Amino acid sequence: MKERSLSEILAMSGYGAYVWTAFGVVLLALLLLYITSRRRLQKAQKRQQRLLAERQQ
Protein backbone atom coordinates (compact mmCIF):
# COMPACT_ATOMS: atom_id res chain seq x y z
CA MET A 1 0.00 0.00 0.00
CA LYS A 2 1.43 3.34 -1.04
CA GLU A 3 1.70 5.98 1.66
CA ARG A 4 0.08 9.27 0.78
CA SER A 5 0.65 12.71 2.19
CA LEU A 6 -2.12 14.54 3.98
CA SER A 7 -2.41 17.05 1.13
CA GLU A 8 -2.92 14.20 -1.36
CA ILE A 9 -5.61 12.67 0.82
CA LEU A 10 -7.41 16.00 1.21
CA ALA A 11 -7.13 16.72 -2.54
CA MET A 12 -8.93 13.43 -3.30
CA SER A 13 -7.53 13.12 -6.82
CA GLY A 14 -8.67 16.62 -7.73
CA TYR A 15 -12.19 16.27 -6.36
CA GLY A 16 -11.39 17.47 -2.85
CA ALA A 17 -12.86 20.93 -3.33
CA TYR A 18 -16.22 19.44 -4.29
CA VAL A 19 -16.18 16.75 -1.62
CA TRP A 20 -15.17 19.04 1.25
CA THR A 21 -17.61 21.74 0.15
CA ALA A 22 -20.45 19.21 0.08
CA PHE A 23 -19.35 17.87 3.45
CA GLY A 24 -19.37 21.39 4.90
CA VAL A 25 -22.81 22.15 3.48
CA VAL A 26 -24.22 18.96 4.99
CA LEU A 27 -22.67 19.74 8.38
CA LEU A 28 -24.10 23.25 8.25
CA ALA A 29 -27.55 21.92 7.36
CA LEU A 30 -27.43 19.41 10.21
CA LEU A 31 -26.33 22.10 12.65
CA LEU A 32 -29.16 24.40 11.57
CA LEU A 33 -31.65 21.54 11.83
CA TYR A 34 -30.45 20.79 15.36
CA ILE A 35 -30.68 24.43 16.43
CA THR A 36 -34.15 25.00 14.99
CA SER A 37 -35.46 21.70 16.37
CA ARG A 38 -34.16 22.51 19.82
CA ARG A 39 -35.72 25.99 19.77
CA ARG A 40 -39.07 24.59 18.65
CA LEU A 41 -38.96 21.96 21.36
CA GLN A 42 -38.24 24.58 24.02
CA LYS A 43 -41.11 26.75 22.77
CA ALA A 44 -43.48 23.77 22.76
CA GLN A 45 -42.45 22.80 26.29
CA LYS A 46 -43.00 26.35 27.55
CA ARG A 47 -46.40 26.47 25.86
CA GLN A 48 -47.35 23.13 27.37
CA GLN A 49 -46.35 24.30 30.85
CA ARG A 50 -48.35 27.50 30.39
CA LEU A 51 -51.43 25.60 29.22
CA LEU A 52 -51.19 23.16 32.12
CA ALA A 53 -50.87 26.05 34.56
CA GLU A 54 -53.95 27.76 33.06
CA ARG A 55 -55.89 24.51 33.21
CA GLN A 56 -55.15 24.02 36.91
CA GLN A 57 -56.46 27.46 37.84
> Judging from the principal axes of the Cα atoms, what is the shape?
rod-shaped
Number of helices: 2
Order of helices and strands: HH
Rounded to an integer, what's the Rg over CA atoms? 23 Å
Please mark out the parts with pLDDT under 50 across 5 or more consecutive residues, or reply none: none
Query: Helical content, roughly?
Result: over 70%
Number of strands: 0
Q: Write down the domain tally.
A: 1
Major sheet size, sense and barrel closure? none
| Average pLDDT taken over every residue | 94
The N- and C-terminal alpha carbons lie at a distance of 73 Å
Structural class: mainly alpha
Strand content: under 5%
Describe the structure.
The structure is a single chain. By secondary structure, this protein is mainly alpha-helical. It has one domain (6-56). It has helices spanning 6-11, 16-56.
List keywords for this structure.
single chain; mainly alpha; 57 residues
Provide a compact summary of the structure.
With 57 residues, this protein is mostly helical. It has 2 helices and no strands.
Which secondary structure elements does this structure contain, and how are they paired or packed?
Elements (H helix, E strand, L loop, with lengths): L5 H6 L4 H41 L1
